[in-house]
Amino acid sequence: MPETRPTGQTLLAEDGGVASTPAAAGEILLELVDDEGVTIGTAEKLSAHQQPGRLHRAFSVFLFDRQGRMLLQRRALTKYHSPGVWSNTCCGHPYPDEQPFVAAARRTAEELGVAPALLCEAGTVRYDLPDEASGLIEREWNHLFVGLVTGDLAPDPDEVDDTVFVTAEELRALEAAKPTSVWFRTVFEAALPGIREIAGRDW
Prior knowledge:
This protein has helices at 45-49, 100-112, 168-177, 184-199, and strands at residues 8-12, 18-22, 29-33, 39-44, 56-64, 70-75, 86-87, 90-92, 118-131, 136-148, 160-166. By secondary structure, the protein is an alpha+beta fold.
């Protein structure tokens, strides 16, 4: 289902204080953070991804099946950011004041129609990654999660065009042949210690 959450918008005022303005109905707000990952305000989702970008909180999920294969999704063609490319199991942004773990579990269920059977924290990574195809930029403080999925998938077609479970070798072949999201390799490498704890040393 599309991600919408009407709410009030809080922005940083010029004097360093906090100024609030009403958000438009259906507008999605992200949580802005400073260089230490501390919350400093909010911004509308698209504006935070437009150049030069605003550093905000995000999450990335890597789920595996019982055979140790990673679940990838191909993003829906209708998405304004990175449509039609392969990426990790799920990624997104917590709502303001929502814990990243809660957001990761919620969004995985919303996009893929199945809740993780196990979900563990795997650290954080910060990056500034421009996306040449869209002209947008990912300036994110990303919370990483790894876990297991055991139920049947029921992807939301508004979010997910396709899914596939891959081995480490199959992932390398896919990356060589198909476009992946601009953030995929960065978050994958940052999550690798946690991935190996869940899925084994083959990764």
